[in-house]
Amino acid sequence: MVDLTRPSLEERIRQMIAATGPMSLADYMSLCLADPQDGYYTAHRPIGAKGDFITAPEISQLFGELIGIWMRAAWQMSGRPTPFHLVELGPGRGTLMNDMLRVVCQDPEAAAALHIHLVDISPTLRAEQEATIAGFQQTKSWHETLDSLPSAPLFMIGNEFFDCLPIHQWVFSEGRWHERVIGLDERGALTFGIGPVRALSAPSQGRETRTTNGPVPEPGAILEHSPASEAIMAFIAGHLGAHGGAALFFDYGHAAPGYGDTFQAMSHHAHADPLRAPGRQDLTAHVNFDALRRTALAELAERPAHGLTVPAIMTQGDFLLVMGLLQRAGQLGAGQSPEMQGQLQDAVERLAGPDHMGKLFKCLALMPAGLPLPPHATA
Length: 379
Ligand code: SAH
Prior knowledge:
Elements: H1 9-20, E1 23-24, H2 25-34, H3 40-43, H4 56-59, H5 61-77, E2 84-89, H6 95-104, H7 108-113, E3 114-119, H8 123-132, E4 139-143, E5 154-159, E6 168-173, E7 176-184, E8 190-197, H9 204-207, E9 222-225, H10 227-243, E10 245-254, E11 264-267, E12 270-272, E13 282-284, E14 287-288, H11 289-302, E15 308-309, E16 314-315, H12 316-322, H13 325-333, H14 338-352, H15 357-360, E17 361-368
Parallel strand pairs: 2-3, 2-5, 3-4, 5-10, 10-14
Antiparallel strand pairs: 1-7, 6-7, 6-9, 7-8, 10-17, 11-12, 11-13, 15-17, 16-17
The protein binds S-adenosyl-L-homocysteine.
S-adenosyl-L-homocysteine is lined by residues 33-34, 41, 47, 55, 57-58, 90-92, 96, 119-122, 125, 159-161, 164.
């Protein structure tokens, strides 16, 4: 039942802005995505053909299976630590975990050692995850944040997790960086604006070079920065550095720093205005893989205990091809109907094709140095 007496999220956001002034994009994103009552992830079912977007594991089992092979190999080559803590961040409907588990459990020793962890803020999606992986009898733990993960080697995966973490944007105007904010126009509707100069918390991306030594940015240039993503990456690198394990993240984003506005809304598989319908459409930003990699490297430099490295960023297409995407698709299609084979070809194209996810999506790994696995083992 919809409670008509309760103000909508949009109404609450307008009230907050009226009371305390314009808000950062990061605060707006947090409210829209994670508000306990009306947040997009906390209160809706966003993923799938009927939802707002489709992710790689929902396109084909090939994605999760190849990642399962990677995880199993990373665990085996790390000396088979027991328990085998397999962790997924933002597991959505649980499809990727389910496909991975099938492959991981082909090794009886891995199956016996397995402990499954799912980190998600969404109660509705948690229920879906539980149903999707119900066929696996191993211990399962759900976590709202990473803090409650065990102090032990972790084998972690996250697909389209970082893109929904809040970002700040900075606009270059009159020779300085200003925070881009969300305020109210004269009719009381949400609108973008430019906030005061906040030199102290200037974005790390731009701090070193762009405003001082480098070329002066064009007026209106936009720089994005996600302290929340960097804090989570620092936690992960610190944890793996201290206890061992490996981690793999896929998302759309850029491997080199740069300017540009990537803040976007998705509704029913199409781009939408991010200031419309707060809490009822997905909000994301491209992931700055360069910043995440540098964060991880800086953290690991302080804890070299487990010899972890962060290989250069690889595209999703290259990763999947090196992991044997074409061979696996061929195996699955052998002896099947032309229709089934056509579907597999289509899935390969969507996952790895340069005009689909193959190039825009990137892969970042943290793993023991010398592990003969991609992204290290580039073809
Ligand atoms: N990995 C899935 C789903 C991606 S959507 C797939 O590929 O299909 C993003 C997922 O992250 C959702 O499950 C959402 O509930 C979860 N999520 C969003 N913000 C989060 C946060 N701050 N902490 C934990 N989980 C979060």
